[in-house]
Amino acid sequence: MGKELKLNDIGVVIPVREGSSRIKNKVLLPFGTDETLLEWKINQLKQVISSHQIIVSTDSQKLIDIAKNNNVKYSVREKYLCEDHKASFNEVICGVVKSVEYPIIAWVTVVVPLMRPKEYLNAFKKYLEIVNDKNSTYDSLASFNLLKEYLWGENQPINYRADKHHTVSQDLPNIYRITNGLYMYDKKSILKKEYFLGHNPYKFLVDKVSGVDIDEIEDYNMALSLYSYYLENI
């Protein structure tokens, strides 16, 4: 950290595969105007960063063709790294990142479709200004939601007392949820630690809508329902 870096030092990786354990061909689900989730994410990113810095990582020819048709780069990933639960997640991360020729990696998922282009740009700038500062205590960055909610573990509350000393929501302790929309870390550290976050990531806060993560079909339907809200607040 500390070396002066610019936006063109960031490689934005979009890891995708055709298979999905919960929703069939999830990355090809329609979203936006006659687009798939993958095309939607590519077009969001192209609004804030050069297309040659966007790399689709996949083993699928169909997804490679989408990358080509949208004038972004692609990286052919080993099939082993794209099959359900065969490779460990750290193997997948290193397999995706090793061929990316940029010092800073931005790992972006297509399953968080409502994170706005301006939020990506602001996050990229925060990384360069804050995380990359030579005196920074942060080593990486991720997108988070701030939760002020009443949370329970299996048998008891996690962040408040469920008795006469009940805490009002505004006074609950800060708990953060990673949205899965964006992770940023330098390539050298990713390959060394075999993970895309360090021990002290900068918490880049986004709103609840920007944090919708499509895991189940109801999440997808929720994202579709929020599409008009997204357009009004882009």
From TrEMBL:
This protein's UniProt keywords: Nucleotidyltransferase, Transferase
Domain of life: Bacteria
Pfam families recorded: CTP_transf_3
GO molecular function, one term: N-acylneuraminate cytidylyltransferase activity
Signal sequence interval, chain numbering: none
SUPFAM superfamilies, alphabetized: Nucleotide-diphospho-sugar transferases
Protein name per its UniProtKB record: N-acylneuraminate cytidylyltransferase
Protein's organism: Seonamhaeicola aphaedonensis
